[in-house]
Amino acid sequence: MCVPGGMDGGTCSFLSTRKTLMHKHFSSKVSFLAILSLAGSTFVAPAVAHGQQAPVADVIDMSLADNSASDIAADVDPVQSGAPVVQQDPILGKPVISFDGQRDALGFEVGDKFDELKDGFAVECTFRFDGDFDGNEKSLCANKESGGWALAIYDNDLTFTVHVDGSYKQAKMEMQPGQWYHAVGVFDGEKSQLFVNGEQAAENLEATGEMTLPENGATQFIIGGDSGSDNTPQFYSDATFASARLWTEPLSAEDIASLYDAAELTTEESASIVSSTPAEGDHITRPFILDVELNNPDLVARDLEIRLDGEEVELGETIGAGLEEGEHTLEISGHDVFGNPIAESINFTSGNLPGTAGTDTEQGEDGVGISARAENPSGGDLETTFTKANLATAQGGFQGTVNEIPESLDFDYEEGADFQTELAPGNTEAQASASTRDLPFQRFDLQLEDAAAETHDVAWSGTVDPKREVRLYVWNVEEEEWEEKAASAGNANAEVSLTAELGQDYVDGESIHTMVLGYDTFADDLNEPVDEQFAEDYDFAIAHHTDTQYLSEGAVEQETEEERAKWKEGYTAATQWVADNADERKIVYSAHTGDIIENWISETNDLDNAKKEFEVASEAQAILDDAGVVNGVLPGNHDNITGREVGADNLYNQYFGPERYQALQGQGGWAEHDASYHPYAEGDNDNHYDLFSAEGHDFIALHLGYDVTDEEAAWADEVLKQYSDRNAIVLTHAYNKPSNNPDGRGADFSHDGRIIFEEIVEKNPNVALVLSGHEHGVSIVTRNDVGQTGNHVIELLADYQFYEIGSDELGLTEIGEYGDDTGLRFGSSYLRLLQFDLENSEVAINTYSPLLDDHNATEYDDRQRYNGHEDELRLPIQLNTRTTSFETSSMVALTDTGEVIGTDTAKSGWGASTTWTGLTAGESYGWYATSRDADADADSAGIARQFGYFTAQEASEEDSAAPTLNVPTEPLRVKAGDTVDLLEGITATDEEDGDITDRIRVIGNVDTSKPGTYSVSYEVSDSAGNQTIASRVVEVTESGSSDNGSSDDGSSDGSSDNGSSGSSGSSAGSSSSNWLSGLLGGILGAAGMGAILTGLLNFFSPGTLNELTNKVLGFFR
């Protein structure tokens, strides 16, 4: 439906206590920045001295005494929605009340004061907005429903709006989240004014005349939201309030200034830094984690940022790699909670801090060549020291499934199994996890040889689907909890690796406890092209239609028969298309989510006219019945007098009662799809559920009419639990609001959304999809971890009722005597087709109007909000066919012994190497490489540390030929913002092993969000340890340039394990060609080839080396 009232026009470590901050939406970065900026300062908001007493409110004056809300002006009892929280604010030093922006609101009845308010009034709210600006209306203090007023947030503007002379008149100013504001709106019949912090901020001189009073039973002054029909709260705000008052008379500027003084938005509190990393004057020699200890985090606003030498950085981020020797500055800027500016800085120095660029291991006859690559920000040489590591490998473990991250070291799980696989480097028998809709896990205990060492590293390698993710958890012995240390999406053609550096907090006696968990990211990143074509390859489809009210109304109320027929056709063309295309388009179910007609929303509506509209709708829906298409309907607020007319005897049930659908069972598609109908109660189709099957999978379609009650929600929960093995689709009228984002993503809950989500969707993990209408526009919500970790739900609003199609296009300009081309609300001639791909657990969605034979309604949106990707898209969907699993090939822990293997000096960016001899074939080994600026003093030089591990192999004299790695010579081009698959078109073969494409590792990163030229390398090794490396240029162009390639996450972090060796980073890159590698390998063997190539790489630049390669090849040809 159209929304009435819518607008026209003690000392603690911060890292360990961030969750306790008062402002629940603070990011870690923001809080840290604020703390730094407040060091040693005291902030007091400026106040104007006024001698007069603050005026006393005569309508509403909210009091928060005794930790509860009450009215001390007229003793009006508050009506509470949700669970707003009253608590003491540590900065204001008085009680405040906080609302969650989802269901919390507080209402005070003021309908008896309407006559006194309409010609002038004033309203005060002292608040802090704790949410995020998302383009949706956020009402603070309001009484607005097709009339009335509000103090609200639109976009990022604090707005006082009053309905006068047919429209809302606004006075507004830009505001910031996380700051306290004292806001007063004044209307005097001649203008509206917005006062902020004691001063006039805006006015609207067009607000002249009497205020239009709120309609539809909206008689409450709502705090934390707005008054909807019958005082149902809407437009909730995530905000905290210190006061709310309402007067029947306008206030003067002097009155408002005295109110601001009384609000006492001042403080003598200050925040200071106890310690920080880095501290003022520190000299940094290695990367560090940004951290701080503080004594008062509550004085902090949310707009603060920190920059290192001008580049934004994050709290908890490991920073420093790439810093050049010299002075550096951390700059902090923003505001405190009262809007006072903040500016602080921390100065420190560093040596040249190398950036790590990967390690390599190369098996040879005379030993194992190990190398490491690092980049010196100065461009100077780097000296690398290679040391031995104690290597612990997982000797088996156990696995199973859970539905939440365990909270203890020993925990309950399902599908349990022990395994004895030794997960060492080079392991050829990967250990597969369970395949499940829940969370598959594998647990490992790594026995350390030197448990007392200060630090250890753990590394996992394995495979996982590109549309899934693996996460590495380590048990923190001190905190007694599992901590996530690393995560990675899968790669279709290569292994991925997870690593973590650990301190003594993670050592339990002689061991480290690790857990790898598979997770379905359920990412809405499938990038469906908008090509106005239905999907070609899918298993079955469901049609969704909603809010046909204007079509039903037009078919009854337009003046001429010809025009009425056109409005009716807008509805019937849709149902006829579904009926005609049920077989071809594999449509197994069709749903209508309410507002079938327009004019049965109020007891004052004409009954005969409403019946005529119901007859039109009934005839249109009968097309589906007669064709045998399994279908269901439900009443919207325009079908059941806004939820007040319910039960078997209501008007809706006279046309769409249970007997209609019971008679269809066993016929046509109902028989074919084993479908059955089940009403909420005898004779009552206000709610119902349908059972049906498609392609061997069972479904339940649960329909809930407008204004869902606790009793109805309990019924629905019981039904879904009864059919917990079926894939569930919830259909309802008012679930989510429209999105204001161009791609339609994101939305708040609508009228029934909160109760359905909390009492039905959250409690039943078989719910995969929610479809709704009610408010015109589109929203797509991919809701993750619903009720339990790993349970995901798709929520789709698709309501086109307000979309306007020109009378010329409809052929109605002359028939309807419109004169000029006029926009008519035929938007609900569009329906949606959801096409399900069971194998990939995806749904392709098309929006189509049979009346217009047109795909996508974007152009007809009266607000022009969207870009086309809201109407044609592809999403993941968690049917019971969608599962997650992964395989582990190695799980190891490394501890540096300090025993030197060798040292080498190399140019920046090139590989330093040494040969490790005296190794035993079949044994696993680990090593560390520590690189430092070769020209700097040892005590002040920056360092970088990497590690590698491998299983030694028998030296082979027979197979010394390196594999052939086929990499295109032309650059790979991709548009900024797009995704890229770096392995597409890359293959590898070997004379002995054959096709070894699956062993290729991608080395290097491409940030597709930033245009530029990147270099990535590819490495592959055969069974004998012979290795080939090749490189390719990737050009990220500005959006709009040509591109190719795709992947799931927009990045290209490479794998770091090829099955026989592992590393802590990407391998050493080289621009030498495959031919040269193979040639030298054939002549000198793998070890000899590695030695020569390393020398060449350290001597020549990449361009010179490529030239040399061509000359060598020419000589041998």
TrEMBL record:
Q: Key word Zinc present in the record?
A: no
Q: Does the keyword Methyltransferase apply?
A: no
A Gene Ontology molecular-function term? hydrolase activity
Q: Where is the Calcineurin-like phosphoesterase domain?
A: 542-776
- Top-rank taxon, per record: Bacteria
**Keyword list, A-Z:** Lectin, Membrane, Transmembrane, Transmembrane helix
Bias kind Low complexity: ranges: 1039-1071
Q: Which Gene3D superfamilies match?
A: 2.60.120.200, 3.60.21.10, Immunoglobulins
Which biological process terms from the Gene Ontology are attached to this UniProt entry?
carbohydrate metabolic process
Please give the InterPro entries that the UniProt record associates with this protein: Calcineurin-like_PHP (IPR004843), ConA-like_dom_sf (IPR013320), Cry22Aa_Ig-like (IPR032179), Ig-like_fold (IPR013783), Metallo-depent_PP-like (IPR029052), STPP_CPPED1 (IPR051918)
Q: Where is this region: Disordered?
A: 350-380, 1036-1071
Biased amino acid composition, Polar residues: 350-361
Q: Which residue spans traverse the membrane?
A: 1075-1100
Give all residue intervals belonging to the Pesticidal crystal protein Cry22Aa Ig-like domain.
971-1036
> This chain belongs to which protein, by name?
Concanavalin A-like lectin/glucanases superfamily
Provide the species name: Corynebacterium camporealensis
Source organism phylogeny: Bacteria, Bacillati, Actinomycetota, Actinomycetes, Mycobacteriales
